[in-house]
Design brief:
Layout (H helix, E strand, L loop, with lengths): L1 H10 L12 E4 L4 E6 L9 E7 L1 H4 L9 H22 L12 E2 L6 E2 L5 E3 L6 E7 L3 E2 L2 E2 L1 H19 L7 H23 L2 E6 L6 E3 L2 E4 L13 E6 L2 E10 L2 E6 L5 H10 L3 E2 L8 E3 L4 E3 L7 E4 L17 E3 L4 H14 L4 E5 L5 H4 L3 H6 L14 H8 L2 E5 L12 E6 L2 E4 L1 H9 L35 E3 L4 E4 L2 E4 L9 H18 L6 H15 L19 H10 L7
Parallel strand pairs: 15-22, 15-23, 18-21, 21-22
Antiparallel strand pairs: 1-2, 2-3, 3-7, 4-7, 5-16, 6-7, 8-9, 10-14, 10-17, 11-12, 13-14, 19-20, 23-24, 25-26, 26-27
Helix pairs in contact: 1-4, 3-4, 3-5, 12-14
The structure holds adenosine-5'-diphosphate (ADP) and magnesium ion.
Adenosine-5'-diphosphate binds next to α6.
Length: 566
């Protein structure tokens, strides 16, 4: 600490690169400060710092961090608190460009495992990674401004946010218990034969299309009697709500009655939510995947023959590749990849589907003969996917009755309130011709695609350059990976992490022998054991990474245009 102070005195007023010498580790008694990377100039991305509070001083009780899920909730809680603290001090130190910035990850409505804050299971020590804009006037070092940040502001932030005695202990306990309940509920789904659960009183709609906060004055969710289930959780007995059974579930209703809102809440139900979100007890099986049409995406050697055969250009749909998929082929590939990846619940909204992938009506079948139509629509496969492979579908379809015959339960949304209309809809459907399907049975849903080994970089100049493009994608060298339509990515930090993971897989996992499923399993195991530091190489671990789900790792690899399949 004294050493840092001395150095600051010596470099004051010098030109900016003299800051570089500050890289290192400093003992602040109550915590350690690591200056891991120093920015090149005041306008560059801010410098990277790490604060480490030893467990005996942070003193969080063991129950808050020993189980992994609790620990993630604790980390999230601490990071939010630290964010508030830095918010009080950012830009208080003055200078040009990014001088005086103090920032950490900004957490949204979901609780994610982030590198921004890590608590060690072994000893309860707390690490926070933050960015600080080292102050300068023009390019002249303002060391006394940095002194303010490192010796006044930062110690305050640490003191107010990272010690058990400083945080609101009741609030912390509630946050961890709620996370525990959500996890337990997700575990219970399968025992109860449920694909998803929506508690009575849940608030599903969001404030606006660009805000993830709950809508004020929304109609609270209320389960129809027929689907009501009561669940007991560790900290919440007798939680009542709608259980959506496994199988084929159809959500119908007039336009603007809340169908997509329900489905979107289910998409997010794979994540744990913070108290007050409104979707705390909207829980979906962990492997649920939202599927949609995504024309323009890249497809590398995917077997889409379950849905598409006999293309006019004689392209082989058992190993289908294209750099520019159509609506229907992209959705077929999305389904094929998701089920091969192990997803047990598929979520589909007509709003974002290719119509010809979903249905084909009677009249069209009469006019355009079957052998002129390469597509076997989803309506003809949805039962088989469940009956033979145990893969459930929850589907929003307000415009076509074609799914009435194949659905196990039909829910109608009426002014944001769900009703079960299975009987009446099935009766009405009886007068219509039976769905005919003469396509061959599905034999397997497993794709056996073996990614080719890639060259490992030999020196620093060869190293792949990763550039984040926010929530929607990234560049791996010059190759853009577009993830805009992977809708269950909820945070740009997940995208950033996916970039590192993909790069790691390319350099270390793809070997020309293992198939893609094995490759993803391997990297997931590594992440489970060692976290993001296992895959994010470099001189220091960035503080802006959030661990994605296995499903999104799959989705990312599948969209990588550089993926070469043997
Ligand atoms: P649909 O898919 O049936 O056409 P949406 O789900 O898109 O309808 O919902 C239409 C509008 O109603 C959206 O603006 C949404 O925010 C709002 N909405 C949805 N659910 C509720 C609710 N429970 N209470 C109030 N407004 C809601
Ligand atoms: Mg809709």
């Amino acid at each position: 600490m004294r050493n840092l102070e001395q150095q600051l005195g010596q470099i004051d007023g010098k030109s900016y690169p003299a800051y570089k010498g500050l890289r290192g580790q400093y003992d602040f008694q109550e915590y350690k400060l690591f200056i891991e990377h120093v920015q090149g100039d005041p306008f560059a991305s801010p410098s990277k710092l790490r604060v480490e509070v030893p467990g005996r001083l942070s003193a969080f009780p063991e129950w808050t961090y020993q189980k992994k899920e609790n620990r993630i909730a604790l980390q999230d809680f601490l990071l939010r608190g630290f964010y508030q603290q830095t918010g009080r001090f950012t830009h208080k130190a003055k200078g040009s460009g990014k001088s005086g910035v103090m920032s950490v990850s900004r957490c949204g409505q979901e609780i994610l495992e982030r590198t921004g804050c890590e608590v060690k299971a072994a000893d309860g020590s707390v690490t926070v990674r933050l960015e600080v804009g080292f102050p300068a006037n023009g390019r002249r070092i303002q060391a006394m401004e940095l002194r303010k940040i490192l010796f006044e502001f930062l110690p305050m932030c640490v003191k107010n946010a990272l010690y058990y005695r400083a945080v609101d202990q009741k609030k912390l306990e509630k946050a961890i218990w709620l996370a525990e309940d959500q996890r337990e509920l997700r575990n219970q789904l399968k025992e109860h034969g449920l694909a998803a659960f929506v508690a009575n009183g849940a608030i599903l709609p969001r404030e606006s299309g660009v805000s993830d906060f709950p809508m004020k004055q929304a109609v609270a969710f209320r389960s129809p009697k027929e689907l009501e289930v009561v669940l007991d959780l560790p900290h919440q007995k007798g939680l009542t709500g709608m259980g959506i059974p496994e199988g084929v579930t159809l959500i119908v209703g007039g336009g603007y009655h809340g169908k997509s809102t329900l489905l979107q809440a289910l998409e997010r139900g794979v994540y744990t939510h913070i108290p007050g979100d409104g979707r705390e007890y909207v829980i979906t099986q962990e492997s649920a995947v939202k599927l949609r049409a995504e024309d323009g995406r890249n497809i590398s050697s995917v077997d889409i023959s379950t849905f598409i055969n006999h293309l006019p250009n004689k392209k082989d749909t058992h190993k289908f590749s294209t750099m520019d998929a159509s609506g229907s082929t992209s959705q077929a590939a999305n389904v094929a990849e998701a089920v091969s990846g192990g997803s047990r619940v598929l979520l589909i909204d007509e709003d974002t589907s290719a119509t010809n992938f979903m249905v084909r009506d009677e009249l069209m079948q009469r006019v355009v003969h079957r052998d002129k139509e390469p597509i076997i629509p989803y309506v003809e496969r949805v039962r088989e996917l469940y009956d033979k492979f145990g893969i459930s579908t929850i589907l929003v379809a307000g415009s076509s009755g074609a799914y009435f015959q194949v659905a196990d339960q039909i829910i109608q949304m009426d002014t944001y309130v769900p009703y079960v209309i299975t009987e009446t809809a099935k009766q009405a459907a009886q007068d219509y011709p039976k769905l005919s399907c003469d396509a061959e049975e599905i034999h397997t849903i497993k794709q056996n695609r073996i990614p080719c080994a890639a060259k490992k970089p030999q020196n620093d100049r060869d190293r792949t350059k990763i550039k984040g493009l926010g929530r929607d994608g990234f560049l791996l060298n010059k190759e853009q990976v577009e993830l805009r339509f992977v809708e269950q990515i909820v945070d740009g930090e997940q995208t950033q992490a996916l970039a590192s993971i993909l790069n790691y897989m390319k350099e270390n996992v793809f070997d020309g022998k293992k198939n893609l499923d094995a490759c993803v399993a391997e990297v997931c195991q590594l992440l489970e054991k060692r976290g993001m530091s296992a895959v994010a190489g470099g001189a220091y671990l960035p503080g802006n990474l959030a661990v994605p789900r296995k499903e999104e790792i799959y989705a990312c690899v599948n969209r990588y245009r550089g993926l070469k399949i043997q």
